[in-house]
Amino acid sequence: MQDSQTQAFAGKVLVLSGGVGGAKLVHGLANTLGADQLTVVANTADDFDHWGLRICPDIDSITYALAGINDEKRGWGLKDESWRTMVAMRRLSGEDWFQLGDQDIATHLYRSMRLSNGDSLTDITADIAQRLGVTTRLLPMSDDVVATRVYSDRGEYEFQHYFVRERCEPKVERIEFIGIDTARLSPLVKDSIADPELSAIILSPSNPFLSIDPILSLEDCRKLLKNRGVPIIAVSPIISGRAVKGPAAKLMEELNMPTSAHGVAEYYGDLLDGFVFDELDAAELDVIRNTGIDCRLEQTLMTDMASKEHLARVVLDFARDLKR
Amino acid sequence: MQDSQTQAFAGKVLVLSGGVGGAKLVHGLANTLGADQLTVVANTADDFDHWGLRICPDIDSITYALAGINDEKRGWGLKDESWRTMVAMRRLSGEDWFQLGDQDIATHLYRSMRLSNGDSLTDITADIAQRLGVTTRLLPMSDDVVATRVYSDRGEYEFQHYFVRERCEPKVERIEFIGIDTARLSPLVKDSIADPELSAIILSPSNPFLSIDPILSLEDCRKLLKNRGVPIIAVSPIISGRAVKGPAAKLMEELNMPTSAHGVAEYYGDLLDGFVFDELDAAELDVIRNTGIDCRLEQTLMTDMASKEHLARVVLDFARDLKR
């Protein structure tokens, strides 16, 4: 652990992020950096169609968090939300396993309408963010469709069907990112990686293989990042062997990955220059350091704005130290 | 005027109807007849796409009225409605000229989803009605798209754009039903016309050329009805030269049609055996009778359930008299 430094961070920061957990650190970074310093790349492999609408859970979680309109307590969706369309839809279709709030539905309607008009997810995401008052640059990883598919002991599922409808109950045998081989990494993401002012790349505390891996797997993204020559730092989403949010730990177990900070560090492997993980996992410090990755132990649980901003500063300070 | 008779009507009744005004008489008929006696054919030429959703204003007005969940006071949509999706959509798109309530949106979402799955509007309409507890048989006039187009002094409009967004302000030069020449009359409507038990055909007090004419213009519908050999009765939507609801009178004026009960009777011409119009227009009785159409003068303004049922009984009694 270190004292947080008060110097402003110089240069630009690129963050790869999934939804809820990642969005917290993104929010902390957005409050710590200038709007022109931060670019967020969102995973879109969880995206799916529901009620004929295009739903982008990670993009929306990040957008809503940055706009300050997310429901912190529930952990997803919008605060001050209502559910009247869903109740009426249940009456018509009998289907209500995926909860969409009345205000949230507007986002999906607007996005679906513009997608069918031929607009790109990149442009639509930027416009929604702008309309909601978000100044941080948020980019979908791709404008092409990538869809996480879960193969389990009970059959195949679209990710949200497995995650929400089946409550992660089926035992996962493997996952696949349908479309990953042909989807192109967003040109704007490529530009951000190539930006001469880029000073740090951060892998947010999202699920490493469900949220971060799809981004890294697009074209030669992993190599582009690795060869960029700026510090790459991951923040562990695992604390004391448990995923803070989401099915990471259960999935890692079923896919025979260690459910530990060490497991996360190993998963990212030589991509990382630095790794931030929780003080509660201090026992793993030596084994992770022995893989050649620089480490920071920190309280990584983000329960309020102060803890998000604190973790953001820790990561940025770490990046500055690594750059020296 | 005549006293309402209390005998039950024998045989089946086919009603052609537009939205709000027509839906009132339909509701009265549904309360007066057995569920197996009444078939309602709804105009779909006002249907349009909005926010990527398929909106069928006349089908929905009739369905909601029959389900007893329509907002009588507002005159359209659902009662106990809320508008949170619309407010959120306004923030995103800046567009809110067509008001869609949160519960109502579920209907459009459900319909759009099923249409894109390849289901027919006929099947979807029946399923929505059934889910909302409606027992009356409601048929879209066609499963093919017909779209009313308004040509005005300010240019061309989709009907709802002219009607709602432009508040009927542009001066109409002509209207056209795009697709009417190739669209097929619903086979189930044809079956209903051919039904040996059919005893009356009613043109509800909807706009004659915007709501009823599209139905009559499908294939040889007008001829099928005319040659069927059962009484055809229209109820005038015009009272004292004013449309009870909607832009009928203004349109009729701009299209050089008489804005009167007589004008409505003339418009339908030799299709009609009987014509029901308002006591306030008693001065027109002779001129209409002279065209060879049997007439009933009645209080045709439907302000509550009792007046809807009363007018329904008047029309059914009239049909029985004409059949003798």
Explain what the structure shows.
Two copies of one chain form a homodimer. The first copy, chain A, is α/β, with parallel strands linked by helices and 324 residues long. Chain A has a single domain, classed as CofD-like domains (Rossmann fold). The first copy, chain A, is built from 13 helices and 14 strands. The first copy, chain A, has helices at residues 20-32, 57-67, 84-93, 102-116, 121-131, 159-165, 187-194, 208-216, 221-226, 248-254, 261-268, 285-289, 305-323, and strands spanning 12-17, 38-42, 48-50, 53-55, 137-140, 147-152, 155-158, 172-178, 198-203, 232-235, 238-239, 242-243, 274-278, 294-298. In chain A, the strands form four sheets. The first copy, chain A, has a seven-stranded parallel β-sheet, with helices on both faces. A three-stranded antiparallel β-sheet of chain A has the order 7-6-8. In chain A, strands 3-4 form a two-stranded antiparallel ribbon. In chain A, helix 1 (20-32) packs parallel to helix 2. Chain A is globular. In chain A, 51% of the residues are buried. Mean pLDDT of chain A is 93; it is low at 1-5. Chains A, B: InterPro entries: CofD, CofD-like_dom_sf, FbiA/CofD. Chains A, B: Keywords: Magnesium, Transferase. Chains A, B: This is 2-phospho-L-lactate transferase. Chains A, B: One of its GO terms (molecular function) is LPPG:FO 2-phospho-L-lactate transferase activity.
